[in-house]
Design goal:
The protein is mainly beta. 12% of the residues lie in helices and 50% in strands. It has one domain. The protein is built from 1 helix and 8 strands. It has a 6-stranded mixed β-sheet with strand order 6-3-2-1-8-7, with no helix packed on it. The chain has a two-stranded antiparallel sheet with strand order 4-5. The radius of gyration is 13 Å and the shape is globular. The relative contact order is 0.26.
């Protein structure tokens, strides 16, 4: 990974709360990655989408799951991290894990 990528990941890691690329365990105990964060809500990423490194963090391109938006206030940060793939360029990053209350 280049120093530019390291800097992008460092900026992403400074973001507070859930971010695109992080993991969310839903009330039905399924684990999905976060595909969008907008207006105090998150949307869950579909399994066929791709995560990419961008200047200001991680982006997702692909379909979002047909699951209702989840309010950020309903999420609880879990201890530790879980790896998540970044497809462009290809590597893995430590992602936060949240659980829906």
């Amino acid at each position: 990974m280049s120093s530019t990528h390291d800097e992008q990941i460092a900026r992403w890691n400074k973001e507070l709360g859930p971010r695109v690329g992080d993991w969310c365990e839903t009330k039905d105990s399924l684990l999905h990655r976060i595909g969008a964060v907008r207006g105090g809500n998150i949307r869950l990423a579909g399994s066929s989408g791709r995560f990419a490194l961008a200047p200001d963090g991680v982006t997702y391109s692909g379909l979002l799951l047909d699951h209702a938006a989840i309010q950020i206030s309903a999420l609880v940060r879990q201890p530790g991290y879980r790896f998540g793939a970044i497809h462009q360029p290809h590597f893995s990053v430590e992602c936060r894990v949240f659980k829906e209350r």
